[in-house]
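Example 3.2
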Amino acid sequence: MNTLKTWATCFTCLLVLQVVAQKQKTPSKSIGQKYGCTSIVEAPKVTSFDTSAGSRGLVDPYYLWDNGSVLKVRFLSGSQAMKDKVKAYAKEWEQYANIRFDFVEYGDADIRVNLDNKGGHNSVIGQLASGIPQEQRTMNFDTTDFATYDAMHRTVLHEFGHAIGLLHEHYSPLAGIPWNKELVYKELEQSQGWDKMTVDVNLFQQYSLTYTHGTTYDRTSIMHYPVLARWTTNGYAVPWNNQLSAGDKALIAALYPKTGTRSTEVPRFVITNYTKMNVVNSAEKQGLLLYPSFNIKTAGNEGQVFFTVFFYDESGNPIMDNDDKYNISNIVATYKSFKIGAGKILSANKNTPNDFELYIPYSQIPVAAGTKVKAVFKAILVDGEELKMLYSSTPVNFSVIR
């Protein structure tokens, strides 16, 4: 079980980011609007490449939709007047990208939008929305924040930018923003209720550049947070950006070209229709048999996927073990790995019960018989040095019976 240890450090960071919960309080008067969105927190990545040649901005190519996609969008709540405004603003992206938003009244939808007076602004990144159950939202808007045209317009463009795969522009390692971190920590804790880790995730993390092609940082991007002058050591500031920048338009046109094909492709895999994971105590095999039920759809390039199950104690703490078997980053786990080509739709434990099995012997779970344990199914894409979380299930509770 040593294969995944090459990515142990990155994977540990990914697990930490998954537990970060962004807190919202009254917005700072100097900002004038609730600051930031929880998009990256809810769908964390380890690395991403910058952009395609000649454009600007940050994107995670592993979560892009197919070029030419028609994405169904359904509102879960909100007034008709508010819905109409969201529709109009979101469709500005269609002018520059070979992608279309089809707003539907009922049925399954790729993007589910919640409009209410709480919860902040957030969106799942790109195709990660495919792994979220249909009854759950993938995007949220706090309409109390929409006091002006500019506030609503920029927020809708920003969140729908996330929904088609874009990341926060200030994460670019080319930005070089000289943050006055201690002051930022203090002010965002007071105004937003953010702890240090939440600030780090939303403002200070950077993405590695796998492909730069001479691209530049775009301070005018709709995907850039505002930066107050006192938050930097040299007075550098970025105002609220209310419109799509020239860089935004060029980037999205390169990612979803209206003529030709996308210039750079990667494995783009999504887990859908995860329903359950059966856990069986097997006296015959002296271990646990695990049967997660899901579909996987592949596009782009061939990729390697690790289908894993991690084990936690009753309180949700990882069960640790430091031997060389059945653990990942010293967390007790089991997995199977497959290389899968593009253009596939495969299923596990759907058409035929128990056609995909994961196994771990009791001897590799360092707990006493009868101990209550939680198991979490995770699908992880590995592409060279890139490690991408495709899916993480809710915990399955059971007792170990030896």
